[in-house]
């Protein structure tokens, strides 16, 4: 039987950031993932600058070997309506490829890696947990994404009654001869909001890669919405009429609509396993990373005494960082019929789109960066 101090289930941004923050702690940390890395992850691959500082990422070194597309503006509108063109003139976000970004973060974490190993069995022992009958630990961190087995163990009703965002995307490379067929500008993502405001579609060009997708917070007819979005893009000349991209789907929970138990004796959930994506934008990578860091701070503070009571500090840290779970946005408080009519008006107003939709909801420029050292 292998033994270690902390097991992190899932090597995505949440798990790798937690492991990275524990790297100098003398704790023996093991990250287990069902996939071998590099692996792909269904995602648009858009990240906000706050996570770069908190992870101490050396952008110059990263961009030499990986796709790293500065985002300098957006085209935004309601699907089927004229789009607003908003330019910042400098990088306000970045486009990355998850197959590269996640692999980079995981391998610099210095944790012991057990990759290509799904969690098949999770049992309680007198001193903690036994995983797959082969690894024993007093502390387990569930970072396995929306369908995380540790979240299920804590009672999450995964895929049943939960109100999840269901989203699909495809990412493909375009060759030099195809450039003219795709007038989507590099570094200017296009955001197409659905008329009922239950989601949005996007086109994001990162270097020679194009990512197209659509996500909605309902589980009815996503494929139909994706098909009509693609038709619309073809009709409006954003993509060629004859392409048939292969879409892949995944789900995640928005912070204010998630109700998972996050802590137990010797266990915490982070990232999508905890349901932390930003309620307005669906941004999940930064909350995943920040929750990984906050969980690491809690582990260090608990000093090997991982009772539920000692780990509760993690919940307080999350609430301080992301606010109360039941806080409601003014848009959510209005009936959906009024919302839709209002949306048509608001999403055609340059001021509203720039300052409310982009700056506040998508870029969160009003939030201070997480000061990891002081949590
Ligand atoms: C279509 C789509 C587009 C998105 N676009 C964006 C975007 O542009 N920007 C953004 O910020 N967020 C985006 N998100 C959300 C973002 O992808 C997630 O919030 C983020 O990946 C969460 O990171 P994580 O580390 O918690 O989980 P994940 O990245 O899902 O990592 C979980 C890991 O756990 C492993 N795992 C799962 N089950 C097991 C098991 N049984 N045993 C062992 N290992 C297991 C998986 O292999 C995986 O490596 C998007 C989501 C979707 C679906």
Instruction: Assign the CATH topology of the largest domain.
Output: FAD/NAD(P)-binding domain
Percent range of helical residues: 25-40%
Could you give a short account of the major beta sheet?
A: 7 strands, mixed
Oligomer: single chain
- Which structural class do the helices and strands define? alpha/beta
Quote the distance from N terminus to C terminus: 35 Å
Which percent band covers the strand fraction? 15-25%
Strand order of the largest sheet: 7-6-15-16-17-14-18
CATH hierarchy class name of the largest domain: Alpha Beta
Number of helices: 11
Average pLDDT works out at 94
Explain what this protein looks like in three dimensions:
With 375 residues, the protein is of the alpha/beta class. The chain has 2 domains: 2-73 and 93-161 and 254-328, FAD/NAD(P)-binding domain; 165-250, D-Amino Acid Oxidase, Chain A, domain 2 (2-Layer Sandwich), CATH 3.30.9. 28% of the residues lie in helices and 24% in strands. It contains 11 helices and 20 strands. Strands 7-6-15-16-17-14-18 form a 7-stranded mixed sheet, with helices on both faces. Strand 10 (122-125) and strand 11 form a beta hairpin. Helix 1 runs parallel beside helix 4, helix 1 packs parallel to helix 7 and helix 7 (285-302) runs antiparallel to helix 9. The longest helix has 18 residues, at 285-302. The chain is globular and about 60 Å long. It starts with a strand and ends in a 13-residue tail after the last helix. The mean pLDDT is 94. The site of flavin-adenine dinucleotide has 40 residues, from helix 1, strand 3, strand 14, strand 17 and strand 18.
